[in-house]
Write a structure and sequence with these properties.
By secondary structure, the protein is an alpha/beta fold. It folds into 2 domains: 4-22 and 116-225, Rossmann fold; 36-106, Rossmann fold. The chain contains 7 helices and 10 strands. A 6-stranded mixed β-sheet has the order 1-2-10-7-8-9, with helices on both faces. A 4-stranded parallel β-sheet has the order 5-4-3-6, with helices on both faces. Helix 2 (47-55) links the parallel strand 3 (37-40) and strand 4. It is globular and about 50 Å long. The model has no long low-confidence stretch (mean pLDDT 93).
Length: 227
Amino acid sequence: MITIEKHNGIKVLRDDLLIGGTKSILMPTIINTITEHVYASPVYGGFQIALSAYLGSLATIFCAKRNIMHPNTKECIKYGAKVIEVPYGYLSVVEKKAKDYCLITGAKKLVFGANEPQNKIIIGNRMKQIIQQLGKEPDEIWCALGSGTLVESILQSTHKAEIKGVQVGAEYKGSHERLQIIKYDKPFEKESKYKTGFQSMPNYDLKAWEYCNKFKTKDDVLFWNVL
C-alpha cells in the first residue's frame, strides 16, 4: 500500500499507516525460516513492531527498561513478542545483551536498522513505485536519518532529487553529493511538539517534518513518514 497525501503543500508518504511503518515491507524477505528472531531496538523504533506483528511469539525484542513502558513496547507485547527490557539500556548495552542471548539460544539476531544491501533494494523499489505514482521524481525528499538505511535506499533509486536527512540521534557517517544532513537541535529523547495532521513519531519522523516545513527550498517536495 502506497498512500500519499498533501499536508501544508507537501506530499507526505503515509507509511505510518503500515503496521510497524516502512520496514514492515521487508518482513517477507528477512523472515524466511521458522525460527526465533531477535532485534535490539530503541523503544521509539518501528522495526520492532513490524517484526512482532509478522512473527508473533517467534520475535524477541531487547530494549531499554523505562519507568513507564513505552507504547511501542506495549504494541510488541500485544502482537505476542517476547520483550526483554534491559536496565540502564544504552543501545550498545542492549545490543550486547541481544548478542549474548543469541549465542546461548541459537536464535537469529537481525542487523540494527535492517541496514543490509538486499533490504535497501526493497526500499529502493518502493521509492521507484512512489515516483511512478507521482508521475515524476520530486525535487526534494525529506526524511529522518537514523541508521541510514532509508536515505541510502532513496539515493540509489533517484537520479536528481535533493535528499534532506534530518539527523535525530547518533551521527551518520555516510555522504553523497545529493544528500544534505541537517542535525536536529535537541537530543533524541526530546520529543518534537510540532503540529501535524497525521500520525508521526515525535522522537523521529516528526522532527524531520518540523524541519521540512521550516527549511524546504523547493515547491515539489516529498516527505517520507516512516512511522
